[in-house]
Amino acid sequence: MAAVLCGPAFAQTDSGETAETAAPNAPDQEPAFENQTRAPLPAEETAVETATIAEDLPNLWSMEFLPGGDMLVTAKEGDMMIISSEGEAGAPIEGVPEVMSEGQGGLLDVALAPDFEESGMIYLSFSEPREGGGNGTSVARARLETDGSGTGSLQDLEIIFRQTPAYDGDMHFGSRLVFGPDDHLFVTVGERSDTPIRDQAQDLTSGLGKIFRINRDGSAPEDNPFAQHASIQPEIWSYGHRNLQAATLDPEGRLWTVEHGPMGGDELNRPEAGLNYGWPVITYGVDYGGAPIGRGLTAMEGMEQPVYYWDPVIAPSGMTFYQGEEFPAWDGAVLIGGLVSQGLVVLHLQEGRVTSEERIPLEARVQDVKVGPDGAVYALTESDNNGASAIVRVTRQAG
């Protein structure tokens, strides 16, 4: 099935039009600087064509391209499988660890080791039921062996990292896995949502609401910002985060993330070593009942401002920087999947700030987004929160 979609017809930067037209949830809050929210539309709209590559798949959470063009995908309930470049799904891969799949839990992200073509090693994150009760986000590594028929198994699987403390809840696990240019692995997690447990996002002795940076074996790099502090978890890279379900590297090798905020507080950040990103002390947006979060503050000394925020939310999940020949106008732009906004959110940047935002409607919740080896954009979509998934290929409209 193919379709032609494009952004809004009003696409002149100087017109004052923005991609978001709905009323904000927190109308009294003001951005800290120009274009921190509701940046103008780009000078020219982007018209695209879509084609469904695979459909009627289980509730997928993430995807990663394998050498040769096949896709390795994870399903929330605990399966991992290979989708061929023609859209055929192989049988579930054997050897996947047990996951806690209630609520937002399940088998989450998957990443290929930088030397995957030689080692066959992959890394996966998942919500793990813990001995003694509770659960938490964990990271495992294993060697992927394929049998030539579109399936395979995970060999020598070992869990290399566990977010602590465990908590008996089913919300806000994160999680994305991103290898940095120095071969270290960034691991994003959530702060488990509930009050007061979410306050531990500010606690450096807790692993809730953090970004971690670990070695391939799960140990803490010696140059991590808190590695020499005896009472602080040495794997912590940055803190004060809510629920990080989008992360990627930019072309310069720097980490960028988008995290779920409250009503009107989704954030784009470029997390740096040792910095505090504020949650839940400062945030844009309001609680789900409409009350302020804490004292209702959006800024405080010693806490970082987001590069960009959305009010109302897009509900981000999955992101990438575009590099390819299919969309020259998107070169260097951030592509973000939107669950609530049901499409792609495209942010154009200049010197680390957003200059414009456009939306590409896909009429489905977007769970993950990747640039394929052909330069096309691939969106992992779902019909609703528990519905079947599809993989959609997005290309420029012909002509």
**What order do the strands of the largest sheet run in, or round the barrel if closed?**
1-2-24-23-22
CATH superfamily: TolB, C-terminal domain
Sum up the overall morphology in one term.
globular
Question: In CATH terms, what is the fold-level topology?
Answer: Neuraminidase
Structural class of the secondary elements? mainly beta
- In the CATH scheme, the class would be Mainly Beta
Plain-language structure description:
The chain has 399 residues and is mainly beta. It has a single domain, classed as Neuraminidase. 1% of the residues lie in helices and 39% in strands. The protein contains one helix and 24 strands. Strands 1-2-24-23-22 form a five-stranded antiparallel β-sheet, with no helix packed on it. Strands 6-7-8-9 form a four-stranded antiparallel β-sheet. Strand 3 and strand 4 form a beta hairpin. The longest helix is centred in the N-terminal third of the chain and has 4 residues. The radius of gyration is 20 Å and the shape is globular.
